[in-house]
Task: inverse folding
């Protein structure tokens, strides 16, 4: 299983939002942190599936240090989002 970093953002009047430093433009959200984390995995798998269909390479997960050094993700809380490697491999076939 491969893990990618998701950055959780939450404002007082918003749901929990999760963005992925390795996948610009891919986001997910949920009313609770648990829901957001579960939906983050689905969003990540869908995003990777589209990349594979387009023949784009899937990046290796960046390090936590690299993600946290990016000013675009300051103020967020990192979580690890699991991605089953066999799911990714099955989409590539």
Result:
């Amino acid at each position: 299983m491969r893990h990618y970093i998701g950055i959780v953002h939450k404002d007082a009047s918003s749901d929990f939002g999760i963005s992925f430093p390795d996948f610009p433009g891919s986001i997910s959200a949920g009313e609770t942190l648990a829901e957001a984390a579960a939906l983050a995995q689905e969003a990540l798998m869908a995003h990777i599936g589209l990349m594979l269909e387009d023949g784009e390479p899937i990046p290796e997960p960046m390090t936590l240090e690299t993600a946290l050094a990016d000013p675009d993700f300051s103020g967020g809380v990192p979580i690890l989002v699991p991605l089953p490697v066999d799911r990714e491999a099955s989409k590539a076939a």
Q: What stands out?
A: The domain at 2-92 is CATH 3.30.160.250 (Double Stranded RNA Binding Domain). The radius of gyration is 13 Å. The CA atoms of residues 22 and 61 lie 7 Å apart. Helices lie at 33-53, 64-69, 85-92.
